[in-house]
Write a structure and sequence with these properties.
7 strands; alpha/beta; 7-stranded mixed sheet; about 280 residues; about 45% helix; Rossmann fold
Length: about 280
């Protein structure tokens, strides 16, 4: 009787384990859609110059992985961190927080923080604070991106020298035929005209510029950005390669899909590594 109970319990545990395995929070794939281990991804990350970690801004699994990748990379080498979520004119406020001269409340009052800063980005900034790392505010001030949306790149010519210091050097190199910019214009049905993808490009160009300005030899720069800023090796990636074709850049993207057991066909090739997350995953906002 005891043996039968033991067998039944063992079967229950096995079935429970099998069920749990089907409820995975994420799976990692390479660009060809083959499953890869976290260890293998980290090996390539640690051999890179720059990592462009593409996220869906409200996806908690990706934010957790950003944190874990950053902590693990830090055990192997010196890091510089940077993010789309901080605009270049807020760099001093970010520096003050990392240096400990202002607290979280002080940062909130002197910088334009995203609504999900506390849950999704503060843990990353706090790594920089604890380990005395540089954390770079890479994005163009949104007011200047709006100028491009309304007036094109030419609208930036009249900016003050101080304002120009917070964007990539003019004139901005731009390829309107890059598939991502073409798709953006098409998706919006022509709304915004030619200036819509240009407003995206000024962000991409500026983020690439500040990454390169702060990339030190022998260190790894990890940059956190919306996946659309680096998917298909365009956006930030394209501008980085235009500046230095020899850079070793690893891109990571995110794919929300019904099942994570197989990478969706549309997500193949969009990055070196793709994080497949169940579309039912809860959101941070």
């Amino acid at each position: 009787m005891k043996f039968k109970i033991f067998v039944a319990f063992a079967i229950f545990l096995t079935s429970l384990s099998s069920f749990a395995q089907k409820k995975q929070a994420f799976k990692l794939f390479n660009s060809k859609g083959k499953k890869v281990s976290y260890k293998k991804m980290m090996k390539q990350i640690n051999n890179a110059d720059i990592v462009l970690f593409g996220e869906h801004h409200n996806n908690p699994i990706v934010h957790w992985l950003q944190l874990e990748v950053t902590k693990d990379a830090l055990t192997k080498q010196q890091l510089t961190l940077g993010a789309e979520m901080f605009e270049a004119d807020n760099q001093q406020a970010l520096n003050n927080y990392i240096a400990g001269t202002i607290d979280r409340k002080g940062l909130d009052s002197t910088a334009r923080l995203w609504n999900n800063f506390k849950t999704d980005y503060k843990p990353l900034v706090d790594i920089a604070k604890r380990h005395h790392l540089k954390f770079i505010a890479t994005n163009v001030p949104r007011r200047n991106a709006k100028i491009v949306f309304k007036k094109g790149f030419e609208g930036l010519d009249k900016l003050s020298s101080q304002e120009k210091a917070w964007i990539a050097p003019l004139p901005i190199k731009y390829d309107k035929n890059l598939p991502g910019y073409v798709a953006m214009k098409k998706m919006m049905g022509g709304h915004g005209g030619d200036n819509l993808p240009k407003a995206q490009a000024i962000k991409d160009a500026t983020m690439a510029y500040f990454i390169l300005q702060n990339k030190k030899k022998g260190t790894l720069f990890i940059h956190y950005n919306g996946s659309y800023h680096s998917d298909n090796f365009e956006g930030i990636y394209w501008y980085l390669k235009q500046a230095n074709a020899d850079l070793k850049i690893i891109t990571i993207s995110t794919s929300e899909q019904k099942s994570v057991q197989k990478l969706s066909s549309e997500s193949k090739g969009i990055a070196n590594f793709i994080i497949a997350v169940p579309e039912s995953m809860t959101k941070t906002y």
